[in-house]
Amino acid sequence: xxxxxxxxxxxxxxxxxxxxxxxxxxxxxxxxxxxxxxxxxxxxxxxxxxxxxxxxxxxxxxxxxxxxxxxxxxxxxxxxxxxxxxxxxxxxxxxxxxxxxxxxxxxxxxxxxxxxxxxxxxxxxxxxxxxxxxxxxxxxxxxxxxxxxxxxxxxxxxxxxxxxxxxxxxxxxxxxxxxxxxxxxxxxxxxxxxxxxxxxxxxxxxxxxxxxxxxxxxxxxxxxxxxxxxxxxxxxxxxxxxxxxxxxxxxxxxxxxxxxxxxxxxxxxxxxxxxxxxxxxxxxxxxxxxxxxxxxxxxxxxxxxxxx
Length: 308
Known about the structure:
The protein contains 12 helices and 11 strands. The protein is 43% helix and 20% strand.
């Protein structure tokens, strides 16, 4: 009974590999998935394609992968919120990223940028906090959806700094950015993909959420420079259905780590959204997942966040 499974694991891969993305085409997760697919295909000797399953805060994509055969031919290019936030917000979802998937490899991480519409009369974070405190009604901010890191990050900042804002969720971070450009909302925490809009002056950066200033905007301070202890990053990783054969897991981890070592891949990640490869070790990735899951479980419970 064990021989067929062992042979199957050794033969991997035998057909096209699907990298499932919860992002629409053109989103950061989709783009990173395509960069990875381009490098994995020649290394593995089979086609590697990105299959987009956007919507429902990543629940559709998570469930699709969780129900797939655990043979390495269906993988999930997941954002952190799909794994370490959704299980606590969408408790009735059919699949749980923490318990129904297993981590294959980390990909990359980047800080967020707190950006505002040019009409906002604030040029730094203290000025924005003061403006929000004296506003007659809470200023509206956008996010890519209830329970996503753009939402939780802004709520964390509001509690750190003590000021109110009105949350306006959208179907995606891209939709939220379009609303910010139009002035329908006045602020958002967005990824490095906002960089072109910030450089063109169509949006204004106030602060970033990482432990150090971003290379693209070295003049923009971190939130921690004003509010010590505040830190938030966006990360991506590859996950698989539980039960992946050990040999298949080992092969995938080696090929993904090799792809991330390529200078061209690292430059591409920086261009996409200031993304930098993470510690490739399985232990380091497991620790990141566990720490973030506990962190965001506590935040979700404190805020009482539930699907809108």
